[in-house]
Specification:
This protein is mainly α. It has six helices and two strands, in the order ααααααββ. The chain has a domain of 89 residues: Orthogonal Bundle (434 Repressor (Amino-terminal Domain)), CATH 1.10.260.40. The chain has a two-stranded antiparallel sheet with strand order 1-2. Helix 2 crosses helix 3. The longest helix has 12 residues. The chain is globular.
Length: 128
C-alpha cells in the first residue's frame, strides 16, 4: 500500500490565483487545462478544480503540468512554496488580501469599489 504524499503549501492559493488572473469559471478552466499539450488526456471536472483550490485535494502531477503550461510558468514555481508566482498572477483576490500592508486601511470610494490605502505615520513637531 502507498503512502499519501505531503500537502504542498500555498498550492491551492496559487491555483486559484492562476484561474482568477485568466478570469475563467471553474468549468472554463477545465477546458483550458484539457487543451494543453500533455502526454495523456486529462480526466478533469469543475468539481475537481474547486477541491484543488480549497485545498481539499492535491492535483495529480499531470494536472499540475497542465496548470504550469497554461500559465506559461515553470512547474517549480507552482509547487515550491518558497517561490512566488509572477506578479501578473498575484493581483488576484487571494494574493492581494495576503500581501496588503498591515497599516493599510480599506475605504469605500464613491463608486462602491473598495480601495486600499496605506496610512503613513507622520510626526507633528511643535516649533519653539
Amino acid at each position: 500500500m502507498g503512502s499519501s504524499r505531503p500537502e504542498t503549501a500555498r498550492l491551492a492559493e496559487k491555483l486559484c490565483a492562476i484561474r482568477d488572473s485568466f478570469g475563467l469559471s471553474q468549468a472554463q478552466m477545465v477546458e483550458l487545462l484539457k487543451n494543453q499539450k500533455l502526454p495523456a488526456p486529462l480526466r478533469l471536472y469543475a468539481g475537481n478544480i474547486s477541491r484543488f483550490e480549497q485545498g481539499q485535494r492535491e492535483p495529480p502531477p499531470l494536472v499540475l503540468l497542465a496548470y504550469a503550461r497554461a500559465a506559461a510558468i515553470p512547474l517549480e514555481k507552482l509547487v515550491d512554496a518558497d517561490l512566488d508566482l509572477p506578479v501578473s498572477f498575484t493581483k488576484s483576490k487571494e494574493f492581494s488580501r495576503r500581501r496588503t500592508p498591515r497599516n493599510a486601511v480599506k475605504a469605500k470610494s464613491t463608486n462602491n469599489k473598495t480601495k486600499t490605502t496605506t496610512k503613513l505615520k507622520t510626526s507633528t513637531r511643535r516649533r519653539s
